[in-house]
Write a structure and sequence with these properties.
The structure is a homotetramer of 277-residue chains. Chain A is α+β, with helices and mostly antiparallel strands and 277 residues long. Chain A folds into two domains: 96 residues, Immunoglobulin-like (Sandwich), CATH 2.60.40; 134 residues, C8orf32 fold, CATH 3.10.620. In chain A, strands 1, 2, 3, 4, 5 and 13 form a six-stranded antiparallel sheet that branches. A four-stranded antiparallel sheet of chain A has the order 11-10-9-12, covered by helices on one side. In chain A, α3 packs across α5 and α4 packs across α5. Chain A is globular. The model of chain A has no long low-confidence stretch (mean pLDDT 93). Chains in contact: A-B, A-C, B-D, C-D. Chains A and C meet through α2 and α4 of A and α2 and α4 of C.
Chain lengths: 277, 277, 277, 277
């Protein structure tokens, strides 16, 4: 599938600020960036870096006082792998690749060490893909999607109790349950096709049968319409922007369009992965 | 400095359990393993893995029901870099290596996003090495070292309020303050010379002037008598053992001896690093 | 019903300590103390006080260093009011007695302000006695009764997430849900007939149809076999002992026997109240 | 001192709502209401109740859909007791009146059970009035007064860590430290003279030398310019308004004027109490 994605972010900087951006689409086997443009109105240099282990792409900018408009646009071809949900088993801990095992550890927003008893009781009888589907169904049915109900310090522990949140909270809770059950899981920030209102989106991936499969407990957009930006343990290391200084809350405009007319991106029931095995 | 280190850990396994151990000394420029032995009484195979980015060394064992005695011993030569504390400035965010920046993010046990106001007020006037020294002094003076006062779910947020903890809590609090101030910091598990009673130890490293310097807010052993086992974001990914199954609380016996008689390891006032720049 | 109840508590005091005990059975319309004895081996005076609003009975003792054995025994006649669960509606806020309204407020261990969304979603369709029964059923089915799984700082917020606790945690969670739904609820400490192993017990009361009805989500003993000791907002003001000083963890021996042979105390399905309307 | 106090609160009610107001000045020995008026634009009846133990005055109103303007105004004569801070000792637990002891218990927003270690270390060497002054000084110096930094779920535990809050958070933290040190303390909502901007205010009282003395860690208005509305364990049972239904966030206008011209109300250094001994 081919998408045109992009964003415009405006910053009002009051004193020199270092900004680290993570808005560019990942390159990889399941997702190819055909062309892209990154620009900043003030013309300051934007140092770029790709993390080898994750493929996350960072830009570091030193913004001086004043207004800065950052624009990014890209044409991205995704080649999702479609699996049969019924045929995707869980990988025993003893057989997990070592580099995947770290995604079983609790993290800032995903205290999987605290929700194990509930997770085993609620989801313990399912297996593999079915388990994570059950997790997503439970979240969708028990947590209200409610703008403004959470903030940057809200973790899965809070969301489980308060029962309200936004996409990042839904992803954190899904990750937490999966890890508690011995399924490696990680956070994914993405451009999402057919999301209303358009914005950066957050979903999660679970490691099953040798692949990272995408899951979205919000049911707000098709799972095969995602263009991945970053992967991480949770939102703490996958923010689209981090800054060190003083700046006015950014106004971000996000855009995702479908460029081809091939079938797909309409709520597939297949399991979807953008990672290589 | 040359050390003989080792541990013996006994497990009573009641049903098949996958155990992931992380007790072997790191190889690297600042620390060389001259010889070592790893054995398990039951003779089950122990798959081994070294994480390229961290140098952490894992063993994965599938233990069947019964008793298992694991023994590790090594002769390790450390070649600490000694710096002058007065000449170790902080690295501006704009100049930090990208791979180091991730150690500014909050993590499971180090909610640096919540303690920023206190950290800036308390330590905001210091700079570089002096800042982290001030952090360690504050922790030593304000937190009681008290066995049994914390458990596996205790985070820096709790320790800051409860004012009691053990070595891992002291390390978590130090990491949290450093990150809140824009200084990358990470968790270090180690064999520690001259620690009484002998046990695995936890300290932390802060990234200053292009190196990771070691800090120990507990003041329980000399900072240049450490042999590093693992580095990580916090205890969540640096545990000496993680298991998935049923087993009896391990009895661990840890041993650290000095083999050479050269000066050092007696409470140096120098800044100490075991990492390459 | 007639019960013989009592307790023996031994304290090893290392320095002068003020102890406030709350172990004596309440006097009142639904529960009459026929005879009772309170003694302390060291013979120190035990100042006594009854709180007018609650009927709670306190003893204050100034214990000097040494061993102290406290004994209490009483013969108590309870005259429970039995109501028909199907005929016990909720009282609208607009009609609640003012002195009852305070039991809608969140308290130390019952953060009803945080669990409202869940409570309404889960129990919002029931009414009156049926609502609180649904609450108790849910707790029984979803929380594991597990000695040692909680401590003095565990609140309903934690229990809801961790899904394990003891009688006081079960009571706190029940109170929290009830308050969140606009049903006044309070904590009750009690002697409980047929509880194994014998110990002080904790249940809760909800205010319905003009009375305080007893509820016990643990299902560990018959609800009409209770002798009330104290009522309060939660365990923070209903502890059986509070001390200010240094003393060795008390060893308590609790005893409850049935003295009459009339029917009852065998798991009634009626609604039970020991309060006057 | 004589004050004219009052408030106007406007509610936009979308469905029938029961409102419980607590905005009327307390009657008592230290504070006399000379005249007062309570009215509601829609003319609905306002049932009134005075709690015997506290003197708190409640109004219960059943508001139907529509707009309601509530007005209260009163002329109040306060007769503060002025004590000499140097001569106000702490009351030993063994001598506290029983009805005061309950104010040593932790409550929803004042987890005194968790901050004891810090409190003893920081304030443990002071005694009596001096202790509570030290508490207030510490709060003033270490916590930023910052509108919008806290919300209805913020407790003393959070404020201690986050180091920012508003008047109710300052009061909660003061109460928490006092209780942790064995000094009974309670929450006070009040009309406050010379507060800018004018609003309902929250302070706390500590029980010392047989009286409840007023303390305000915010230093935002004179302590002898207060007219007490309610006392309680913490904000959970001292809110100026509680409602059960749907209504638009109230717009409240508070007014406090000095009517006499006698000296006082200008930052006395005396200890001030409005309670009878």
């Amino acid at each position: 599938m081919r998408f045109s994605v992009g964003c415009e972010i405006q910053y009002d900087v009051s004193e020199e600020t270092t900004l680290i951006l993570n808005v560019e689409a990942q390159h990889g086997e399941g997702q190819e960036v055909l062309d892209e443009q990154f620009s900043i109105s003030s013309g300051v240099p934007a140092e770029s870096h790709i993390v080898p282990e994750t493929g996350n792409r960072y830009r570091r900018l030193k913004l001086n006082a004043g207004q800065h408009l950052i624009s990014y646009s890209a044409t991205v071809e995704t080649r999702p792998y479609f699996g049969d949900p019924a045929l995707i088993p869980q990988v025993p801990i003893a057989e997990l690749p070592f580099e995947v095992i770290t995604h079983l550890s609790p993290s800032r927003y995903c205290q999987s060490d605290k929700l194990g008893r509930f997770a085993w009781r609620q989801f313990g009888n399912a297996n593999g893909y079915e388990t994570v589907t059950a997790i997503c169904n439970w979240i969708y049915e028990n947590v209200d999607y409610l703008e403004g109900s959470s903030d940057g310090s809200t973790s899965a522990y809070d969301t489980f109790t308060l029962r309200a949140g936004v996409c990042r909270d839904f992803a954190h809770l899904g990750i937490t349950f999966a890890r508690a059950l011995g399924i490696p899981a990680r956070f994914v920030s993405a451009y999402a096709y057919d999301l209303t209102p358009q914005d950066f989106h957050a979903v999660f991936e679970a490691y099953l049968d040798g692949r990272w499969y995408l899951f979205d407990a919000t049911r707000r957009c098709p799972i095969d319409g995602l263009v991945r930006i970053a992967i991480g343990r949770d939102a703490a290391d996958s923010a689209f922007a981090t800054y060190f200084g003083q700046l006015g809350g950014p106004a971000a405009l996000v855009r995702v369009e479908r460029l081809d007319s091939q079938p797909g991106t309409d709520w597939t029931v297949a399991a979807v992965s953008l990672s290589s095995p």
